[in-house]
Write a structure and sequence with these properties.
Elements (H helix, E strand, L loop, with lengths): L3 E2 L4 E3 L4 E2 L43 H4 L17 H4 L1 E3 L5 H21 L10 H7 L2 E6 L4 E2 L2 E2 L2 E5 L2 E5 L7 H19 L16 H9 L1 E3 L2 E5 L4 E2 L23 H14 L6 H25 L1
Parallel strand pairs: 4-5, 5-9
Antiparallel strand pairs: 1-2, 2-3, 6-7, 8-9, 10-11, 11-12
Length: 302
Amino acid sequence: LGLYYYQARFYVPGIGRFASADTVVLNPANPQSYNRYSYVLNNAVRFTDPTGHVCYDPGMDAAMLGNCNGGSIPSPTLPSASAAALGIEFSAGWSNNDQQVVVNVAIQIDVALWRAGNFQGRYVAGATFKAVYGGVKFNYSSVQEYHNGKAIGARTNSAHEITFYDAAFSVLPLSFKYNIAHELGHAFNANALSADPTPANPNRRTGQPYRDLQNEGISVDNVLIAGGNPYLRTNKGYQLASGNKPYPYQQDTAPSPGEDFADMFSNWAFNSFAANAYGAERYAWMNSHMPEWTTLAVSVNQ
């Protein structure tokens, strides 16, 4: 029948509604709570509903922000998978706790890729991430690197290798998660190689996501918010942290398609774009390209 099982209820994707009414009204002050067939308060760009009872923002720590109904239901449990199942390897120097954070972020990406990439069959935790990335080694280096005089947290060396430095481990937990996802966005691009070479170098294929973002751009009401050459980068569509700061939702605000895409990838995976038309357009743009990009990545790693 094409129904999705959300633990408490079945969801009907064709109409974007649950098949039965919610038995819980979590926030009587919110009129949307009384539409008990609706999915995530009719805001699927921002929230998910892993339990069938409460919408949840997976990009946030529930202990900090609760959920979109204003309740106190704890974060849903992600599917469990080992680093090996994800194709992840760690060098020496990683603590068990930090390794687990990486695994949790990878599982979040694994679920997002499976949903958006038109993968067939039953979801198997870790399998999609491993097929798309073809294995990733997370290195640790005690020799801190700098860019423009600023200590960097990590660097993506290739499609299959990322190095983290001490600066990455001295930030808040939410920032660390976005740093990991950002670097995995770079690695995703390096795996999703274009079918054709670059005009400047016939022997070199480059990542399709960076190319698509620059060449196509993203516009809202005919106003460009990302893309072009020279590349235009804006905050539109991203959440801003306290003090209207882009960090941690934007890890690197450099005006380049690579850094913008890596930040878009992390916010897409965590479903944490701004809850407005700009965020919705960024999210929709990512979703529309994922089937092609994941197919490219899997074909490269077969």
